[in-house]
Design goal:
By secondary structure, the chain is of the alpha/beta class. Helix content is 33%, strand content 25%. A hairpin with a 2-residue loop joins strand 16 (310-315) and strand 17. The structure holds adenosine-5'-diphosphate (ADP) and magnesium ion. Adenosine-5'-diphosphate binds at residues 14-15, 17, 19, 37, 39-45, 427. Keywords: ATP-binding, Cell membrane, Membrane, Nucleotide-binding, Repeat, Sugar transport, Translocase, Transport.
């Protein structure tokens, strides 16, 4: 019994980004298909198209040679195609059994049959060797088990193709091993076509029958694992050696390196395995790494949100060990996180109110809030970031780019010594993006402040940062690089978790 799911010349554009550019790929039942590529290569986009979560601009998807239209995930489900994304879709407050039976409860004579559901759930848990019982609340389980439960839940639904987006990033080595073995078994014993999106060569080579590598939305390599070498795959992922990044618009940092404001020495946590960096006044330090490498964790550690088990930090010459974000803010650290909506701002508040919120106590005297002063400070801060749009409305109604500018001006109002930015231009249109890049450089180069910038976009990082730190699997890989000495290809090579990639002068 064979069967294949195929992408035929699929293209998908988002604004100015051609995320997929005529992609062909064939997923066969009974095989594990490793889908590899650098950040932004188009892996998740391809998965979304193959699972009906998004639609191509052109090209076709076929099953066993016949074109299928996957207008929505339900269409894909009906065809036996299921995706498991990084953001798991399970509900934390429910039990394993409740999650497994969410949309299709078992009933007996019109009543929920909990006992029957629990029996089925326990059988499923045993079958996939998941260490939990039907009545365990999901919140109490490690991520690895939740991942497997999500897979098991997909397999209950007669799945023919199972597509997983970077499922191993949050797992420990033993958990990864277990998950990969399970996927291999599911492919061969249950005749499922498994697509494994993963950027670790070891993992893919250990289970995949076939590998496809995407680079900038194109397939640069596709073949059976027996026929391609790791060097081939590395070369495909890294892409062509490109010209040094255009930096005409770049206002160079002062030649002399500024005073070190923040020094992070070998910090460790559950997910960080030794990261060191130095952020200097007047400079932008860029942090690069692949999904799951720990980029954002480093920022969260500096912001007092990651529990450290080792290492130390020094801020302005003094030992620095923030117990909470409030602590970090008091010490002169400001953070604009990747999650604008969830931990960024209060959607119903106007930009002005959002901007002054963290520093309201500054506008109090004799226990009275001086609203006029707060308002004036907010207006001054907002004026500096050149917002286009009506400020007399809730911030939620502004465009993503303008929201981000509001958050930047809010961070500036805190007069931070160190400004932490996580993906500051994610999902922002190209014009506003360029403005935000200018702002970031102004903020850093203006004086006695350091900016630490995390971005998955290589061009952005090379264009905006002065120095670059690469993180691999929770560790900082070597010294800081000067951005002007790096190309996109070199950055990708440094980020790949492979000693071969680091040595091969690709
Ligand atoms: N919804 C979206 N809006 C705008 N750009 C997007 C969207 N989704 C993806 N992109 C862009 O398309 C490119 C491919 O993204 P993605 O498929 O997520 O890559 P990968 O999963 O390989 O890291 C990236 O440049 C990304 O920024
Ligand atoms: Mg992705």
């Amino acid at each position: 019994m064979t069967g294949e799911l195929a992408a035929r010349a699929l293209s998908r554009r988002y604004g100015n980004t051609l995320a997929l550019d005529g992609v062909d790929a064939t997923i066969r039942r009974g095989e594990v298909h490793g889908l590899m590529g650098h950040n932004g290569a188009g892996k998740s986009t391809l998965l979304r198209l193959l699972t009906g979560a998004d639609r191509p601009d052109s090209g076709a998807i076929t099953i066993d040679g016949s074109e299928v239209r996957l207008a929505r995930p339900a269409d894909a489900h009906a065809a036996g195609i299921i995706a498991v994304y990084q953001e798991l879709s399970l509900i934390e407050n429910l039990t394993v059994s409740e999650n497994l039976f969410l949309a299709g409860e078992l009933t007996t004579a019109g009543r929920l049959d909990r006992a029957a559901m629990n029996r089925v759930a326990d059988d499923l848990l045993a079958k996939y060797r998941i260490d939990a019982t039907a009545t365990t609340v999901l919140r109490d389980l490690p991520v690895a088990s939740r991942q497997l439960i999500e897979v098991a839940s997909a397999l209950r639904r007669n799945v023919k193709y199972l597509l997983l987006d970077e499922p191993t990033t949050a797992l420990s080595p033993t958990q990864i091993e277990e998950l990969l073995q399970q996927l291999k078994r599911i492919a061969t014993e249950e005749n499922v076509g498994v697509v494994l999106v993963d950027h670790r060569l070891d993992e893919v080579f250990s289970v995949a029958d076939r590998i496809t590598a995407l680079t900038d939305g194109r397939v640069l390599l596709s073949g059976s694992t027996a026929q391609v070498t790791r060097a081939d795959v590395e070369r495909a992922i890294i892409g062509h050696e490109s010209e040094p990044t255009a930096r005409a618009a770049r206002s160079a940092a002062p030649a002399s390196t500024g005073e070190t404001l923040l020094s992070v020495r070998d910090i460790r946590s559950a997910r960080l395995r030794g990261v060191s960096l130095e952020a200097s006044a007047g400079r932008v330090l860029g942090i690069y790494g692949l999904v799951g490498s720990g980029r954002s964790r480093v920022l969260r550690a500096i912001f007092g949100e990651e529990r450290l088990s080792g290492g130390e930090m020094v801020l302005g010459g003094h030992p620095y060990a923030p117990a909470s974000p409030a602590d970090a803010i008091r010490s002169g650290i400001a953070f604009v996180s990747e999650e604008r909506k969830s931990d960024g701002f209060i959607p119903e508040f106007h930009p002005r109110e959002n901007v002054t919120l963290p520093v309201l106590d500054r506008f109090q005297s004799a226990g009275i809030l001086r609203l006029g002063r707060a308002r004036a400070a907010a207006e001054e801060a907002l004026g500096r970031v050149r917002i286009h749009g009506d400020l007399q409305q809730p911030i939620a109604r502004l465009s993503g780019g303008n929201q981000q500018k509001v958050l930047l001006s809010r961070a500036m109002l805190q007069s931070p010594r160190v400004l932490l930015l996580d993906e500051p231009t994610k999902g922002i249109d190209i014009g506003t993006k360029a403005e935000i890049h200018d702002l970031i450089r102004e903020l850093a180069h203006g004086g006695d402040r350091a900016v630490v910038l995390v971005s998955t976009e290589e061009e952005e990082l090379l264009g905006v940062a002065d120095d670059i730190l690469v993180i691999r699997n929770g560790r900082s890989a070597g010294r800081l690089h000067r951005a002007e000495d790096l190309t996109v290809a070199e950055l990708r090579r440094l980020a790949l978790e492979s000693p071969e990639a680091a040595l091969a002068g690709v």
